[in-house]
Amino acid sequence: MMRNYDVLLGYDYDKWYGYAMKEPVLSDISVNTNSHILICGMSGSGKSYLTNQIFARLCIQGGENSKVYFSDFKQDDTFSHLRNCNRYYPYDKTIKALNTVYEILHNRQSGKDTLRTPVTLIWDEYVANILALISQDKKQAQEVMRKVSEILMLGRSLAVRLVVSCQRPDAVVFPTGSRLNYGIIIIVGAPIKSIYEMLIPKEYIERIGDREFRIGEGVVLLQGSELHFIKVPVIRDEDKLQRICIEALNR
C-alpha cells in the first residue's frame, strides 16, 4: 500500500517479466529516512527519463509548500521545457542553485529558519559539472564538493534533499565516500560492472545474476541494504508531467 510519503521508483522487474504484474517499488521520502537520490546510467540508458519522473513525483509528494531547484549542466533539449522557470539554473549557473540550497540548510540548522517543508536540489550531470569545474578552478571545485557532502550528512533531519544524476559516479567527485551517503541509489540501462562495484556491496552484485537490463530497467539499492530490480514506467501524458515540474520550479 502506497503511503503519502512514498515515491514510486518503478515496477518490480522480475514480476513484470515473470507474471506480467505491475508491482510498485516504493521508497520512503519522509524526514525519517535518508531520501537523497543518486541516479546513474550511461548515455541512452533512460536516466534522464527517470529523473523527470522522480522530479514530478517529488513535487507531488512534497505538496504546494515544497521548493525544488534544478541545475542543468548539460543544457541539451532533455529539460528544455524548464528553461524559463524561476528556479532553473543552466550550465554556468548551477553552483548558484547549490549555494541557495546550502544557505537554506544552514538557516535551518541555526534556527533562523524553523520550516521543515521539503527543499530539493536536482542536479543533472553532476559529475561532468564537477570535473569541468576541477579543470577550471580546483579550489572552487573542492568547496562545491564540501557543500554537497554537508547537505548529504545534515539534510535528512532538516528536510533538505539532493537528487544527483550522472553517468559514472567517479570517486574523485564524491570525496570521503560521499557517494554512499545516498539513501536511494538507482543504476539504469545495460549493466556496467565497474559502476555496480562503485555503489553496490559485492554480495548484492552476485544477486543480479543473469538479468540483462535494457533502457529504463535496472537496479535499486535502498538504505544500503535493500536490493530491487525495476522497470521504469512509461509516462502516457508527458505534457502533464512537464506541467507539474514547471509549476514546482515557479512557485
Summarize this structure briefly.
It contains 8 helices and 10 strands. With 251 residues, the protein is of the alpha/beta class. It starts with 5 loop residues before the first strand and ends with a helix.
Secondary structure topology:
Elements: E1 6-12, H1 13-19, E2 24-28, E3 37-40, H2 47-62, E4 67-72, E5 88-90, H3 94-110, E6 119-124, H4 126-136, H5 138-154, E7 160-166, E8 184-188, H6 193-199, H7 202-208, E9 217-222, E10 226-231, H8 238-250
Parallel strand pairs: 3-7, 3-8, 4-5, 4-6, 6-7
Antiparallel strand pairs: 1-2, 1-10, 8-9, 9-10
Helix pairs in contact: 2-8, 3-5, 4-5
Write structural notes for this entry.
With 251 residues, the protein is an alpha/beta fold. It is 38% helix and 22% strand. The protein contains eight helices and ten strands. Strands 2-1-10-9-8-3-7-6-4-5 form a ten-stranded mixed beta sheet. The longest helix is centred in the middle third of the chain and has 17 residues, at 94-110.
> Helix tally?
8
**In terms of per-residue confidence, which ranges show pLDDT below 50 for 5 or more consecutive residues?**
none
Q: How are the strands of the largest sheet arranged?
A: 2-1-10-9-8-3-7-6-4-5
Distance between the termini: 30 Å
Outline the biggest β-sheet: 10 strands, mixed
Helix-strand topology string: EHEEHEEHEHHEEHHEEH
Inertia-based shape: globular
Number of strands: 10
Oligomer: single chain
Structural class: alpha/beta
Give the helix level as a range of percent.
25-40%
How confident is the prediction overall: mean pLDDT?
A: 94
